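idk why but the lab printer keeps eating my pages so im just putting this in chat instead. protein + glutamic acid:
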Amino acid sequence: MQNRTHYIGRFAPSPSGPLHQGSLVAAMASYLDAKAHHGQWLVRIEDVDEGRSVPGAGEAMLALLRTLRMDWDGDVVWQSQRKLLYQEAAGKLGAHVYPCGCNRREIADSRLGTAPDGSAIYPGTCRHGLAPGKTMRSLRVRVPDMRVPDAAGCTASPATTANTDLITFTDRAAGRVAQHLATESGDFVLKRADGFWAYQLAVVVDDAQQGVTDIVRGADLIDSTPRQIYLQQLLGVPTPRYLHVPVVRNADGEKLSKQTGALAVAPDSEAQALGALQAAAAFLQLPLAPPGSISAFWQAAIPAWAKRFT
Ligand code: GLU
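predcted complex ->
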C-alpha cells in the first residue's frame, strides 16, 4: 500500500434526494481510499444548485453516514454558504470570463453537437461582446482555440494563458484521459442563467480551498474533469489525483439517480445497514466474507481496498 504522508479526500453529494445505492458506492470508494492512505476524509454537501436541492436531504445524508459509521473529518461544508468564494474566483479569472446572452435553444440551433456529458457545445456567439439587443443571462469561461498547424507544421497559439485546448490527465483506473476543450466542451458556464454558480466552478474552488489531494468519485464525472483541470490551471491551484469508479446502473442501463427512480438507502437495523454496505463493496469488487458488524465490515474493507486500488 502506498503510504502518502498528505492525503485529503472528500465525498461531495448533491442533496437532490436521499442517498441511494449509487451514491453509497461513491461515498464508500472515497472513504476507503482515504482510510487506506491514512488520510482525512471530508464531506461537502453540494447544494450549489439551490433549485434542485431538497430541504432536509443533506442532513438525512449525514445521518445515514453516521449510521454506517462513516465518520468524516472536520466540519461539513455546504456550498450554498460559499457564494462569495465562487464570486471571488470568477473575479480572478478576469478576461477569461465573459457575459453570454444566448438561451438554450439558440445554442442547440447552432448544431455544434453535444459535449460528452450531454450539454450543447457553445458556438462562441458572445465571445466578443453581447450581440445587440441581448442581455446577459450567464457567465462563461473562454477555452483556448484548437491549435491549427500551419504549412511549416508549427502550431499557432491563441492569446490565452493556457496555450493549448488539449487537457490530459492520468486517472488511477482509466489511465490517460485526453479531451480537446475547444471541440468537446466549448466555452462553458460558470454562472447560470438562474443566478446560481455552476458546479464546475464551485467544485474547483472548494477542492482547492479545502486542500483536497485526491478525488474519488463516479465515472459519470470523468468527462467534467478536463474542464475542472482547466479552471485549476487558470486559478493557479494544484490538480488533485483522480480515481473514477464505475457508476451503478439500473436494469435499463441508466445511472441510478432520483430521476431514474433510485430507492433510498434507509436501513432500519444493523443487518440492513450491513446489507447495503456489502452490496456496495461487492459492486466495487471487494472480496469480503460476510462480517458480523459494521465495524468488522470496515476493518475488512479497508485492507481489501488497499490491495485493489493503491
Ligand atoms: N455533487 C456531485 C454529485 O453528486 C459530485 C461532485 C464530485 O464528486 O466532484 O454528482
